[in-house]
C-alpha cells in the first residue's frame, strides 16, 4: 500500500471516529431531556370513520358518438342533405352498434351496482369492527387504569416499563429495562441494560503506521481516564433519565423507593452489574434528577445512595443493593433502604410512629422510636432489626442493652429475620424491657399489620 493510500485511509478512520464522538455528544444531550410523558389519557384511542370508497361512475353511450357524419352528402332543393342508400346503410349499422353499446353499458352498470353494494357492506362491517376494537381497547385501558390505581403489581410494572421504554428509546440506541414491583416495600426494582463501553470511541485520530503488516494505519490511543469519564457520564445520564421517567409515571404515588441496577453484557464476562441505586422517595424528590450541565450528572447520581464502578473497563462488578423476585422477597433480596423502610412502617403500624434511624447498613438498622401512648408508652424505645447473621448471639443482644442504657430508653426491641442463640435469649432475660422477636414472629407481624409477606 502506497504512503498516499495509507494517509487517505487514516483520514477516513479519523472521520469515522469523530462522527462516533459527535454521536455520543448528541446522545448525552438527548438523555439530559425529560422523556415523553406516558399517561393513560395519552394511551386512549379515538375512532375516526374512514370515507366510503367511491363507486365507479360512467356515462351511457351517446348517439352523437355513433351517428355517421353527414359531411359530403349532396344537398337537395330544400337545402337538406340527401340521404342516399350508402348513408342509410351506415346509419343502420351505427344504430345497431349504439344499441349494442347501450346493452353492454346496462349490464356493466348492474355489475357495478352489485359490486358497489358489496363494497358498501364490507366497508360497514370493517368500520363496525374498527369502532368495536377501539371501544374494547379503551374499556380494557380503563380496567388497566383501575388496576394501576389499586396498586396491582402487574399493572404498576406495566406502567413503569412503558415509561422506561419511552425514556430508553433514543435515536440509534435502545436501553431495555425490566421492572419488578414489591408491594411489601412499595419499591420498584429496575434492571437496566446499559450500552456497552464500545459506545465511546477508544481513539479519535489515526495515523500512518510504519508497520505495513498492521494495515499501514494505527490509532492514536485515547487516554483511558478520558474514556472512563465519557462512558460514566453517559451511564449517569441514562440512569438519571430512567429514574426521572419512573418518578413522572408514578402518578398515584405507589412508590416509596426505587432500586435500579444498571448492567452491561459482554462476551467475556456475561452480564455484569455496573451500578446500583437504592433511592427512597425523599432521595428522588430532594432535587432535580436531570441537571442541565453534563459535568453535574455523575455527581448528581452519586448524591443518591449509589454504587458505581470506578472503572467500567475493568472486571470488577459492583454488588446490587437489591434484586427482583417473582415471589415474596427474601430478606437478603431487599435493599438496605427497603429493609429500613419496612421496619419503620411495621413498627409505626405497631405503635412506634416517631422513628429516628441512627444506623442503617447492609445487615440491618438501629433506631430510636417513641410510642403512640396507646400500644407503647410515649418514651424512647431502642429498636434493632437485622437480617444477618442467621443466628443472633448473646453479644449482639448485650450491645443493644448497652444502647438502651446510653439512651435512657424505656424499652428495647431486638428483631431478626433469623433466630436467637439460646445464650442470646438468656442475655435478654437479664435486661428488663428488652423484647426479642425472631424471624417467625417478625413475618407474622408483617402479615398482621401490613397485609404482606416476607419470604424465608
UniProtKB/TrEMBL annotation:
Residues 333-446 form the Restriction endonuclease type IV Mrr domain. Residues 102-129 form a coiled coil. InterPro entries: Restrct_endonuc_IV_Mrr, tRNA_endonuc-like_dom_sf, Type_IV_Methyl-Rstrct_Enzyme. Keywords: Coiled coil. It holds the Pfam family Mrr_cat. GO terms for biological process: DNA restriction-modification system. GO terms for molecular function: DNA binding; restriction endodeoxyribonuclease activity. This is Restriction system protein.
Amino acid at each position: 500500500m502506497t504512503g498516499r493510500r495509507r494517509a487517505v485511509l487514516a483520514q477516513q478512520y479519523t472521520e469515522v471516529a469523530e462522527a462516533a464522538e459527535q454521536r455520543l455528544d448528541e446522545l448525552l444531550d438527548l438523555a439530559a431531556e425529560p422523556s415523553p410523558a406516558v399517561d393513560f389519557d395519552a394511551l386512549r384511542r379515538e375512532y375516526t370513520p374512514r370515507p366510503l370508497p367511491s363507486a365507479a361512475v360512467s356515462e351511457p353511450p351517446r348517439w352523437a358518438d355513433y351517428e355517421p357524419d353527414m359531411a359530403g352528402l349532396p344537398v337537395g332543393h330544400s337545402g337538406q342533405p340527401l340521404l342516399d342508400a350508402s348513408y342509410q346503410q351506415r346509419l343502420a349499422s351505427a344504430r345497431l352498434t349504439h344499441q349494442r353499446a347501450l346493452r353492454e353499458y346496462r349490464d356493466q352498470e348492474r355489475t357495478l351496482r352489485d359490486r358497489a353494494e358489496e363494497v358498501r357492506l364490507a366497508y360497514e362491517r370493517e368500520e363496525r369492527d374498527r369502532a368495536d376494537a377501539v371501544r374494547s381497547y379503551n374499556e380494557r385501558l380503563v380496567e388497566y387504569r383501575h388496576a394501576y390505581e389499586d396498586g396491582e403489581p402487574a399493572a404498576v410494572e406495566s406502567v413503569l416499563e412503558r415509561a422506561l421504554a419511552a425514556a430508553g428509546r433514543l435515536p440509534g440506541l435502545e436501553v431495555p429495562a425490566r421492572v419488578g414491583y414489591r408491594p411489601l416495600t412499595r419499591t420498584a426494582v429496575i434492571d437496566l441494560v446499559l450500552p456497552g463501553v464500545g459506545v465511546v470511541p477508544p481513539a479519535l485520530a489515526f495515523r500512518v503506521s510504519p508497520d505495513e503488516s498492521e494495515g499501514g494505519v494505527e490509532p492514536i490511543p485515547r487516554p483511558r481516564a478520558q474514556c472512563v469519564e465519557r462512558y460514566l457520564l453517559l451511564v449517569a445520564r441514562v440512569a438519571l433519565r430512567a429514574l426521572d421517567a419512573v418518578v413522572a409515571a408514578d402518578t398515584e404515588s405507589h412508590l416509596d423507593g426505587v432500586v435500579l441496577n444498571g448492567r452491561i453484557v459482554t462476551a467475556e464476562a456475561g452480564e455484569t452489574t455496573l451500578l446500583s441505586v437504592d433511592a427512597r422517595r425523599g432521595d428522588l424528590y430532594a432535587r432535580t434528577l436531570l441537571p442541565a450541565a453534563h459535568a453535574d450528572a455523575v455527581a448528581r447520581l452519586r448524591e443518591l445512595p449509589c454504587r458505581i464502578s470506578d472503572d467500567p473497563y475493568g472486571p470488577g462488578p459492583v454488588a446490587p443493593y437489591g434484586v427482583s423476585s417473582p415471589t415474596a422477597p427474601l430478606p437478603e433480596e431487599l435493599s438496605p433502604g427497603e429493609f429500613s423502610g419496612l421496619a419503620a412502617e411495621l413498627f409505626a403500624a405497631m405503635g412506634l410512629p416517631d422513628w429516628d434511624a441512627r444506623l442503617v447498613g447492609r445487615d440491618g438498622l438501629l433506631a430510636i422510636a417513641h410510642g403512640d401512648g396507646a400500644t407503647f408508652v410515649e418514651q424512647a424505645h431502642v429498636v434493632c432489626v437485622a437480617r444477618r447473621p442467621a443466628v443472633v448471639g448473646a453479644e449482639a443482644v448485650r450491645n443493644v442493652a448497652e444502647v438502651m442504657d446510653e439512651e435512657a430508653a424505656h424499652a428495647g426491641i431486638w428483631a431478626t429475620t433469623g433466630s436467637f442463640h439460646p445464650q442470646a435469649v438468656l442475655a435478654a432475660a437479664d435486661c428488663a424491657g428488652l423484647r426479642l422477636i425472631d424471624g417467625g414472629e417478625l413475618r407474622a407481624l408483617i402479615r398482621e399489620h401490613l397485609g404482606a409477606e416476607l419470604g424465608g
